[in-house]
Amino acid sequence: MASTEPPAAVTPPSSKPNLLPLASTTIITPSAAASVAVAPTASSSSPATPSVTTPRPIPSDAEVVHIPSYSCWFSLGDISECEIRCLPEFFDSRSPSRNPKAYKYIRDSIVKQFRRNPSSKITFTEVRKTLVADVISIRKVYDFLDAWGLINYSPAALNKPLKWEDKDSKSSQHATDSPAGPSSDSTPPVRETSKRLCGSCKSVCSIACFASDKYDITLCARCFVRGNYRVGLSSSDFKRVEISDEMKTDWTEKETLQLLEAVMHYGDDWKKVAQHVGGRSDKDCITHFIKLPMGEQFASSAEFGSSINKLNQMKDDNNISSSSSPSKRLCLSPLADASNPIMAQAAFLSALAGTGVAEAAAQAAVTAVSEMGQGEPKADIRSLHGVQGLQDASITSNGSGILKSVEEAHSGVNPKPEEKEKVNVEEEIRRVAEVQMKQIQEKIMHFEEIDSQIEKEWKQMEQMRDILFYDQLNLLKHERAIRKSGQQAAEGVRTQGDFVS
Amino acid sequence: MKPLPSTSSKTPVKFRMPTSENLVPIRLDIEVDGQRFKDAFTWNLSDPDSEVSVFAKRTQKDLKLPLAFATQIAQSIQTQLTEFRSYQGQEMLTGEKIVPIKLDLRVNHTLIKDQFLWDFNNFDSDPEEFAKTFCNDLGIEDPEVGPAVAFAIREQLYEIAIQSVATARESRNAKKGRRGEYSSISSRSTGAALDLMKLFSNRYSVVRKRKEWDVYEPMVDILSNEEVNALESMEERKPR
């Protein structure tokens, strides 16, 4: 009697319950086994979490690997256009060993190797020792993956302080966060007493040094001038870092008070401010002033109203005016050094446009983009508007990013009781930006209404056109019918006449 | 069964690696201040020379070697590339050239011994593909073995190519002098290669003779730590 229950010995453990193996054969479908095996690896190579969001709840046994949001096109299964564009030598069949298959082999091996241990950075030499290919092909793919953050991308890098701040805070972060990071200038995590070693002559940098973040190299001024760096780098890759500034101690409370007084008196004249403070250069004063804490710990009080407004204005000027170079760099830096050229350009444009405009535009574009994403059919006008909004949106999002980072910088420094007046400055700026954003939002809504009206009218016109066409058709039909009947009648008469006669 | 024609194409060919891609095997053995650095990899000749210093610097930095290594590495690579290039204009003799390739290498804990025949005349051959398949088929877990195998094959092919350049030169000079010496020259030029006639002399079967089976069978051995240490100390003592 053929029973429906499968014999126990035959049922493979990993098969689905509704798979009934035949009584005599014991074929285990390999696909069932394979699909189970794939699942763990699929979850372990989970892709992009966007760079600045709260972390999702991590599944218990999967390892989450972070990659930046501008690299979300990447997938291990196939080759995307981005890769074809960036590494054309693998795809133009000029060289027999550089073909898509070889590229995929190298790329997948590197990524898998990195993902086996995502917390530590993987070096080029480790990779090239394990791949069967010529070393330059490996280097090209490795550099590509590194540049796009698909390997060696640690979320700790997102919270990097702004570039123009003290370099030792950055190097101290390097020393503390990535334990396996091959930082050539390993410095003790103490702010004041960090020394910087030159990468080529191994001497302590004293006055000024040049750092290239692209290749993580530090050169002393002498080596930089001599051109003692690798081929492939140019002098533009290096940024000047003043050591003498970094060596100075923190600002004392007395100095900060003097600074504030001076700023209130002299406003934008930083030379006089520097004189008043004494012992600090004007750049230092500007730097420190912007760094002053604007935290929420300090409640706003009415008596500081006028002084707050004044400081407000000065802050605004400082943020937007191009005369003070650190603030300009403040605007540029959050994304200007990103390896992604598009974001760098967006950062540059936003710096030109100014924070308020940039913010407002970004808000507009965000709303426009979200509506485009809903898939409603739009007329050409609308899509053009959306594109325009999109361009502005990227700038504005940078602007809001700028504000956020300013906030962070402020909250990072220890709050001081004398600076209660500074509390509202941030708020005022925020309010101004919000108002502007609302204005633009209303404009957008207005345009949307006009758009929908135009669509309605267009539809009406179409309907009328259809009706007209229908009428014409009917008319023609009638005409023809009448003509036919007329002819028939005429013929009928003739035949009758014939018949009669 | 007709005997194979003994007239093989002795037309000289421009020097190159007899593989689909002209990759050069580079070996490094640098000693600075008591620190020894040994390495072996393949280099693509079509890449610009600026890559040499970049690569050297990268290697030195990644392996945290002292700075002097970078320049030495770059120099060594450059020398070997120039040497390779110096052969490039010249001609080499090819013909029916089946060469035996021997693998006898130790990579970390894996010991490999193998021997097989390679067609030197096949300019589409791919040692990299061979190495990958080799590692897959033999279940070798250490990923560093693959590149080492590919490198070993390339190195031997390179040496044979150099030899054939030398013999081509000799034969050219000989041709200018004497004219009746073809047979002796031809046998000399295929010195590294096996005579096909001998190989297929057994007319009844193409299966290899039993006594040669062990030689041609790949052998992979995983060593323990002590064995590795013993071998390493032996290797270091040898050149000294």
Automatic annotation (TrEMBL), chain A:
GO terms for molecular function: DNA binding. It is found in: Nucleus. Residues 248-285 form the HTH myb-type domain. GO terms for cellular component: nucleus. Residues 243-293 form the Myb-like domain. Residues 1-21, 168-191 are annotated as: Disordered. It comes from the Eukaryota. Keywords: Developmental protein, DNA-binding, Nucleus, Transcription, Transcription regulation. Residues 172-187 have a biased composition (Polar residues). Coiled coil: none annotated. Residues 246-297 form the SANT domain. InterPro entries: Homeodomain-like_sf, Myb_dom, SANT/Myb, SANT_dom, SWIRM, WH-like_DNA-bd_sf. Residues 65-162 form the SWIRM domain. This is SWI/SNF complex subunit SWI3B. It comes from Linum trigynum.
TrEMBL record, chain B:
This is Bushy growth protein. The lineage of its organism: Eukaryota, Viridiplantae, Streptophyta, Embryophyta, Tracheophyta. It is found in: Nucleus. Its main location: nucleus. The keyword Transcription applies. GO terms for biological process: chromatin remodeling. GO terms for cellular component: nuclear chromosome. It holds the Pfam family SNF5. It comes from the Eukaryota. InterPro entries: SNF5 (IPR006939). Belongs to the SNF5 family. Keywords: Nucleus, Transcription, Transcription regulation.
